[in-house]
Amino acid sequence: MDITWSNFKKQLPVVCQAIAEADFLAIDGEFSGISDGPSFTTLTNSLDTPEERYEKLKAHSMEFLLFQFGLCTFKYDDVKAKYIIKSFNFYIFPRPFNRNSPDKKFVCQSSSIDFLANQGFDFNKVFRDGIPYLNQEEERLLRDQQEEKRYHTNGASTTCYMYISPDASRAPVVPVIPDDQKDFIDKIVYQRKLIYQTMNWKFPRGTHVETVESPNNERRMIITKVDEDERKNKEIQKKVKEQEDLNNAVGFSRVIQAISSSSKLVVGHNMMLDIMHTIHQFYCQLPNDLEEFKSLTNCVFPRVLDTKLMASTQPFKAIISHTVLAELEKRLQMPPFNPPKVESAEGFPSYDTAVGQLHEAGYDAYITGLCFITMADYLGSFLSPPQTHVSVQSDVISPFFNKLFLMRITDIPYLNLDGPDLLPTRDNVLHVTFPKEWKASDLYQLFSAFGKIQVSWIDDTSAFVTLTQTDQVQIAVNISRFAESYCVQKYAEYVAKKDRQSLSKRKRTDDGWMDFERKRTKTQYNLDQTFSTKKSINSVEEEPRPVSPEESEVLKEDTASPTASDAAESSKRPKTETDQAGIYYVFYFVKLLSRARGGQR
Amino acid sequence: MDITWSNFKKQLPVVCQAIAEADFLAIDGEFSGISDGPSFTTLTNSLDTPEERYEKLKAHSMEFLLFQFGLCTFKYDDVKAKYIIKSFNFYIFPRPFNRNSPDKKFVCQSSSIDFLANQGFDFNKVFRDGIPYLNQEEERLLRDQQEEKRYHTNGASTTCYMYISPDASRAPVVPVIPDDQKDFIDKIVYQRKLIYQTMNWKFPRGTHVETVESPNNERRMIITKVDEDERKNKEIQKKVKEQEDLNNAVGFSRVIQAISSSSKLVVGHNMMLDIMHTIHQFYCQLPNDLEEFKSLTNCVFPRVLDTKLMASTQPFKAIISHTVLAELEKRLQMPPFNPPKVESAEGFPSYDTAVGQLHEAGYDAYITGLCFITMADYLGSFLSPPQTHVSVQSDVISPFFNKLFLMRITDIPYLNLDGPDLLPTRDNVLHVTFPKEWKASDLYQLFSAFGKIQVSWIDDTSAFVTLTQTDQVQIAVNISRFAESYCVQKYAEYVAKKDRQSLSKRKRTDDGWMDFERKRTKTQYNLDQTFSTKKSINSVEEEPRPVSPEESEVLKEDTASPTASDAAESSKRPKTETDQAGIYYVFYFVKLLSRARGGQR
């Protein structure tokens, strides 16, 4: 169901109802762009740390607009033994709601826009009829403005309570009236007083005064004869109207608030950017610190599941070769998987996966939900007794909770929202700095003695070089000591140095940090209130603990080693990162099976 | 006539023909936004110098996209005694044309998008079917790539000639083949050679080899049996195809190139931003220096006329109170003006000014042209004998050539593209610096002894304060010498200090500047070629000369002095600039009349 500004108010209760009754929700966002860097590789280096990846996405992706949000709610019907779905396709646009509203700017990336255009995306629905939104800070500001307005209106004076100035925090200005204008002002003030006096004398039963603004921004004072009851009624009407205006301005953020406070499982596919954009656009500015971001995400989306991560993990990894959403959906329709039975709720149009409407957010959310159900049910087949339907409460899916897929990082498959991230040693990796003039060939030449290498460019003068054998790392470092033009260090040394730098940097900017903290706390007011029973923002362990043996159990990738043609291909594109995956994956399935075999559910 | 990518190639000759036969052209652009600053006032201070205004527009407006370009051509038909018009409405979008094309990003401003949406603007036409474009640098790069490709294809090897890397200027990389892959590569190279040999032996009459790319980016080599003639034909076909690809990629820029090389008079309304965007988007990056910009504009648009400046200048100023395009158009339909007779050319839909389609670029261009004709004809009525039709060659309009209206600058009405700008003394203006905490009221208080003042904010800690009487300036400066919290200097002193600073800054960055110059010269290659007979870029006088008495003849504004209610209003909005115009206008009309009465035409 398409939801635009035209039908938003009418359909909002339907949306909230669907969320409230659902077993789980699937979401998907479409953005006006992905990366403001020179290319997508600006965002991804295969040896990024989770911190670095988060920083890159924050720096290079958040200026774009999330302008279509897909929500598909899934409710299991025990009688029919199938999921009943309700799918919504929201069009979103930061429409200015009045003359004081923030005039937001956002970036568009041609390739993304062109891609969506080719999919038949309706830009007019976004720009002409998109649903507005406010983040929590903006909502608070608007609420404050309304209260201040009410305070002043009820008080003695009706002086200016709102104005636009380069620094909006300044207090209203007391006008200084030049001598030659004093008579004029005095006369006007006198006349105004006279009108009020006459009004009170002529209409002793009372009057109601309100200021209305015409469509062409002219402001008029409307005075109505009323008795006390009518006056009170008018006041109440006014309050209701104000509340409605506020609700209108908050707009789509109310849907996200409903999702958030439902605490339902939220399923997405490769959902890191979806989550970052959603928080950034509808809640608050993203924090600089990754741990902060994790806590914030836990507050906004207490339980998430990423189907791309799920499909890339055993036992699925062994039988699913492509995890791009469309490919995954196709693969999951074939054995050993059983496509689930779903049915659109009454009044909701049903999607036909045979024709598909890929990259419409509502449809993508729907497909994502289907993939999740299929994979969950597949895990159920390993239980004893086997289950054909696995509920979202089942232990077989809980290992996938709160882990976000990390694109193209070879040895850290996911961002762990519930604790510290995996910490691979990367002891076969070198950090190399070199002159700007160097090409990829120079690096291959330099390390030619060590056999096959992988180069991951950081910038024009540095790169990671991954050697095949760990014991050659020390040799490479030793040799480099005689070199003047380049410098080689072990990955661990590089990271340690970088951590020291960022620590001292953070200390230096302490004030700014505390300032941010203070602001954030304020912004999180509603969040904290809503989730006071849940893990508080500061309760996450800050100290990195050693990775448990279970978590660090990794598998070598099962595809054949890259062929020479891959090497030739990568040498043709010297500075794009090599896509070859190296070491792979946390093996949850061991845990899953042992649990499943041991007991109930 | 709407022109999108679907009909662009078919209609381009029609557009070029219309330009070639026209007496003059009217243009208008619609942008995805105006200012990336906190508000529109970021762009305008009523005491900006032309240099400052240009810098502000360049810094805060160029990230937006010119996505609709209106062109209306006007050709006078002597027999019918009316103008025949052809109006075009181009939809423009930086569509990526192949996998190597630049992935452009642009900013959208909610208020601008919302404004256009309310006018019924069709965003789908832009994003789904917009015409692509390249600037001159990009066109040159693409041409070079094609030539390099051709060179390599004709040469011995077919190695990689194009690739994407963080630094595209690097040379192709010689692949270093690891030992364990050498056999594999040797075998492939041998097999390839074998295929070529067999081909030459099997098909002695000759073969044609070409690489084609399928829609899903797979590349295949196609080998066709051909004799010598066929081979040559194929080569020619290929060249034609490449030229076509290039033309397609250059896209809308070809329309601007046609306008430019026609040297026709280009009329716009408040056209500074239109010109800046047009050059920025379709020619080259805007220079940092205003003089450079003027020279560049002279090359791209040798003759321009701004109807907003015309309407704000005598004799029109005295009888036209509003110069906003829609208001101006209405006013010019009433006496003493005679609305001109115009007719749409055959096959072109005619606009109805009664219903209007304001803010569609093609319509706005049309209206702008009408306004120009009406005002020009009005000037003709003062000639002896009076003329009902004034041609674009007439002396009565030449004083308005190459002067761009400067929004909201009270004492410098226009940017003079043909020489130095007006240099008002501003000897009743003070530059004041003060603590961040100061409000407008503090400034009004401080200068309350001097009667009515005007405050133009520069930033949080400085402002211009305009006094009513020049002789009080020295008193204010004298008093300030005893103050510690604020600092007052005369406008002239402030400017002198600023000029010294910018001069030393420019000296420091000399290398960067020369680097830019070098780049610009390269980029301007086509421009310089096209306009070699015109004023060369460096021929503009660099030394500011004193303003001639004729030019500096200014008139006090003829509206009543601002009332006290204005003062109260401006004190309510402390940091927005006061809109009240102070001193006004160069009085061309004196010159006009004296010329007109003196002579022929």
UniProtKB/TrEMBL annotation, chains A, B:
Subcellular location: Cytoplasm; Nucleus
Main location: cytoplasm
Record InterPro entries: CAF1_poly(A)_ribonucleases, Nucleotide-bd_a/b_plait_sf, PolyA-riboNase_RNA-binding, R3H_dom_sf, RBD_domain_sf, RNase_CAF1, RNaseH-like_sf, RNaseH_sf
Domain of life: Eukaryota
Keyword annotations of the record: Cytoplasm, Exonuclease, Hydrolase, Metal-binding, Nuclease, Nucleus, RNA-binding
A Pfam family matched in the record: CAF1
EC number(s) recorded for this UniProt protein: 3.1.13.4
SUPFAM superfamilies, per database record: R3H domain, Ribonuclease H-like, RNA-binding domain, RBD
GO cellular component terms listed in the entry, alphabetical order: cytoplasm; nucleus
Record protein name field: Poly(A)-specific ribonuclease PARN
Family to which the UniProt record says this protein belongs: Belongs to the CAF1 family.
GO BP annotations listed: nuclear-transcribed mRNA poly(A) tail shortening; priRNA 3'-end processing; siRNA 3'-end processing
Alphabetized GO MF terms: metal ion binding; poly(A)-specific ribonuclease activity; RNA binding
CDD domains: RRM_PARN (cd12428)
Annotated ranges, domain Poly(A)-specific ribonuclease RNA-binding: 419-496
Disordered, as annotated region: 535-577
